[in-house]
Amino acid sequence: MSDGSAERAGAEWFRAARFGLFVHFGLYSLAARHEWVRSREAMSDADYDRYLERFDPDLFDAAALARAAREAGMRYAVLTAKHHDGFCLFGSALTDYTSVRAAGRDLVAEFAEAMRAEGLRVGLYYSLLDWRHPDFTIDRYHPLRDSVPPEEAKGHDMARYRAYLHGQVRELLTGYGPVDLLFFDFTYPAKGPEEWGAAELMAMVRELSPGIVVNDRLGIPGDYVTPEQYQPDAPLTRDGAEVMWEACHTLNGSWGYDRDNHDYKSPDLLVRMLVQSVACGGNLLLNVGPTGRGALDPRAAETLRAIGAWTSLHARAVHGAGPSAYEPPPNALYTQRGDRLYLHLLAWPLKHVHLPGLAGRVRYAQFLHDGSEVRMRELDGGEHEHNNLAPPGREPGTLTLTLPVVRPDVLLPVVELVLHGEEP
Ligand code: GLC
């Protein structure tokens, strides 16, 4: 917890879950060139309305999305209930600018129901920015920054927008069953806690949903921090205390569907990112941007499937696992859950891997993907190396594993080490 009080009830599931799906879908998905398209191209309301007129998410299948997420090993999912363009994927009494009005679909309702049916926790993303609301003041990101006459701009009133923002969050937390997580987005120099009425909003959220997990982008401390398209390689701390965190990442650099962008991260890179997050006490929220019709594009679907092939065999090295106090050898990461220490081999060694400090501590070693025993012994220079040539760090106390020459055919090979005398 970042505000110093007792840890929120929701922190427990969030920490154990480790892996979630982010879903960016909205009118920008039809433009298919990044979710900031309206700002980047300074589109007028009328320009942008061409997507509203054509909005028809006939292939948005929340049940299929939920299944794909669960099969990828994800335990929660976060949908853009409203993005910066102000378009709402839910029925709101406060605006007509919604998917219900445009296409007769309450996608937040469909999403929440489908995720729960697959046993996933439900998260909603809500943009604090709103480029459609008549009271949201014009700033440098606003699509109308160069086109609104100054007289008209003066009439924008953030107090009225604030009431709308709070009202919509209330709608989301009261109309869709229990919401487990809220992802607000975002605070920047022109607008922050004061404009959002952040303290009051947070108090309302806590009152409506006491166990909910809330991120930190209201500009006041939340329950977790949100490094974006950045991969921490050590636990994150504030004033010396570890904080909960979740790295959010795109598949290809864009959150919204971006047809011509092929800069995809490979499944094996994504698995390493997931494991590195767990090894550093964090979560990974991996994004997909469904197409203009609402379907997962083939590349995203294939990526989720490939990750799932790994997580289905390696789930226990991820879910409920966290950092280890043991120091991993080079080119490896450790995750730990109770008496199980997981050695993730980022590069494949030739036959031997030396684990400092583990001699006498390991009861049994096996590959996690197939449960095959990995032989081990204590080697302190021994047979293959002259003692005086043993590299520094190969101290007595080192445990040596003997691996096959051929690397197992999984995205990231993992050896499960069963420790003596650790609390399960
Ligand atoms: C940034 C972007 C936004 C995206 C978000 C995801 O804040 O403005 O488009 O939804 O990151 O974390």
From TrEMBL:
Ranges of residues in domain Glycoside hydrolase family 29 N-terminal: 7-314
Top EC class for this record: hydrolase
Chain positions of site May be important for catalysis: 248
Gene3D superfamilies on file: Glycosidases (3.20.20.80)
One Pfam short name: Alpha_L_fucos
GO CC term, one of those recorded: lysosome
Record EC number: 3.2.1.51
SUPFAM superfamilies: (Trans)glycosidases (SSF51445)
Keywords of this entry: Glycosidase, Hydrolase, Signal
Family annotation (SMART domains): Alpha_L_fucos
Signal peptide per UniProt: none
Keyword match Signal: yes
One GO process term, biological-process aspect: fucose metabolic process
Domain of life: Bacteria
Protein family membership: Belongs to the glycosyl hydrolase 29 family.
Function: Alpha-L-fucosidase is responsible for hydrolyzing the alpha-1,6-linked fucose joined to the reducing-end N-acetylglucosamine of the carbohydrate moieties of glycoproteins.
Protein name: alpha-L-fucosidase
Source species: [Actinomadura] parvosata subsp. kistnae
Lineage, top ranks: Bacteria, Bacillati, Actinomycetota, Actinomycetes, Streptosporangiales
